[in-house]
Amino acid sequence: MGEGEAHSPPAAEKKEAEEEDDFGYRLFPDRNKKPQSFLVRSLFTFHNKCQLMLRLTLETNPYARLLLEALKQSGCTVFNDRHFSCENCDGCVSGGFDAATSQIVLCQNNIRQQSHMNRVVTHELIHAFDHCRAHVDWFKNVKHLACSEIRAANLSGDCTLMNEIARFKFGLKGHHQTCVRDRAIRSILAVRKVSKETAEKAVDEVFDACFNDLEPFGRIPHSKADAKRAYRDFQNRDRYTANL
Question: What residue spans carry the region label Disordered (predicted)?
């Protein structure tokens, strides 16, 4: 994905590391399989539906459009056929960002609705944006992972009021922060073999700084309307910078 692309660990190191932690790859079994031919993939409804929903998200969703533009501005242009992959995954996950290949995995067997696809793509594009702009050590530094998970939960719409109500979770003041913290911890535990205490400690240590890092949105987009305003502001910011 352009500049800032991560590299896989050397074979010996990777094998040793995998014995202790598979870095979440167990959740994405199709990652280790040979790619299927177009003809074979076209026979599976899940794959076709995933591709159609992905295209609609990339073309119309303001969260995704802003992130795609921000990635391009950062030197990391995203290509649909290169940086997205619809695959079958473990039942507990909806998507993931594979830093070794700079590729976003979309779990075609778990994403059934367009609104869900919108959130997953946005969440993973935030990870891609962090991967592009910063030297994120996804595999060994749990604080780096925690920071990106906090940002993804905060900015992707994961913790909007409607989504929380759908999860039967209600709260008053500070509920958004509580949701972001809980979902960041949950995401870490899903992809790393660490204790809950380790995940909580990592999230708490970086929470304030990462929660307040609102790039590239410039605000917490609590709705599509907020995301559209953020996208317009981002475009205007680029025009202003170009005229300096």
Answer: 1-21
